[in-house]
Amino acid sequence: MNDTVPVASDAITQLRRYIQSRIIGQDKLIDSLLIALLADGHLLVEGAPGLAKTRLIKVLAQGIEASFHRIQFTPDLLPADLTGTEVFQPHDGQFRFQQGPLFQNLVLADEINRAPAKVQSALLEAMAERQITVGRTTYALPELFMVMATQNPLEQEGTYPLPEAQLDRFLLYVRIEHPGMEEEARILALARSEAAADTGQTHPPPVIPQQAIFAARRSALSVHLAPALETYLLQLVQATRHPGAYHATLERWLRHGASPRASIALDRCSRVLAWLRGRDYVTPEDIQMTAPDILRHRILLSYEAEAEQVSREHIIGEILARVGVP
Questions:
Q1: Which of 53, 125, 142, 274 is the most interior residue, by most CB within 10 Å?
Q2: pLDDT above 90 coverage of the chain, percent
Q3: Is the separation of the CB atoms in 96 and 89 below 8 Å?
Q4: Do residues 53 and 111 both lie within one domain?
Q5: 172 with 229, same domain?
Q6: How many CA atoms lie within 13 A of 243 on its CB side?
């Protein structure tokens, strides 16, 4: 194997340990963040306030050589507040482009569903195209560019829910819950140590260079995926589009299936998960573990499913149970 593979693996291991030392009780979210980082995608996180969503990406930015900006989405936000705008320079009478916060490496879009559709579209266009156009000029975004957007499921008044076509731009859609009692006790201990200013000395950030992140991406995406598992992966996506071939109830519950982005995401994320677990090959469990977060926001439920209060998680579980594992 290439000599850069162990170096990249060690760098990601250091990064993961550092994040876990600062974020307690959210191991699934940490894994999802690293998968999105190494699969070169974006992450949408839904969870109640106080579950370390904002803290997580701040800690990630501390652990790697990257710039970070947090954007609080509000109803009065304008697209130019994200992309930047032409600013008049009085000393020479010229307009010059002043970059907005989207030109950072890591961007936190906090409560993305509280901004109007124009602002959401500006962000999601930048996510998909990796560039921003202002007037007649197009500006490229950094090579390392990742957006983590958050949503609060508790308060929906005054929000602008993301349309399904825009949700499809996110690689993963993760839902998180409150930690258990033991984990919360560790959170209290961490908060006390931070208040005493001991954390910076005990767990200094590794500051992983961006080239190590790119090397880890190349290594992770070269993980072997057997032809039989590729067929299995495609069958899972096809089952969301043609559910009647697997069970009549699934056909009654699903109105629209996942796009080809789901197949691409399953391929990339299952390889990255296998790599993070120290393997150079993908197993069916890797595909099954990543499938819910990839399919959750890419399927549309029928009116019957909504009336019967059937969740997307239940439907995805049924698909995983009914599609044969090679």
A1: 53
A2: 59
A3: yes
A4: yes
A5: no
A6: 24
For 14-45, the pLDDT digits (tens) are 999 999 989 988 899 999 999 999 999 999 99
CATH number at residue 186: 3.40.50.300
Taking every pair of Cα atoms in the chain, the longest distance, rounded to a whole number of angstroms, is 71
Q: Kind of pairing, strands 106-110 and 146-151?
A: parallel
Averaged pLDDT score across all residues of the chain: 89
Domain span at residue 138 reads 23-198
291 and 228 belong to one structural domain: yes
Query: What is the identity of the amino acid at 8?
Result: A
Domain match, 231 and 313 both: yes
Instruction: Give per-residue pLDDT as tens, 178-205.
Output: 888 988 898 888 888 877 765 444 567 8
Residue 11 lies in a domain: no
Q: 314: domain CATH number? A: 1.10.8.80
Is the torsion defined by CA of 38, 42, 47, 48 positive or negative? positive
Question: Would you mind telling me the total number of residues written for the chain in this entry?
Answer: 326
Whether residues 231 and 138 share a domain: the answer is no
Mean pLDDT of 85-90: 83
Please, which residues have CB within 8 angstroms of residue 275's CB and are 6 or more apart in sequence?
Answer: 9, 38, 216, 219, 220, 223
Residue 1: pLDDT over 70: no
Asked if residue 165 is part of any domain, the answer here is: yes
Cα dihedral 55/58/60/65 (nearest 10): -170
How many domains does the chain contain in total?
2
Residue 135's SS3 state is: coil
Nearest CA to 212 out of 81, 43, 38 is that of: 38
Determine which of 15-19, 91-95, 147-151, 179-183 has the lowest per-residue pLDDT on average: 91-95
Which residue is it, tokens 């109105």?
255
Closest CA to 193 of 15, 20, 21: 21
Q: Nearest-5° angle of CA 73, CA 74, CA 75?
A: 135
Same domain, 245 and 192: no
Q: 272-310, pLDDT tens digit by residue?
A: 999 999 999 999 999 999 999 999 999 999 999 999 999
Count the helix, strand and coil residues of the chain and give each as a percent rounded to the nearest 5.
50, 15, 30
Distance of alpha carbon 218 from alpha carbon 212, whole angstroms:
10
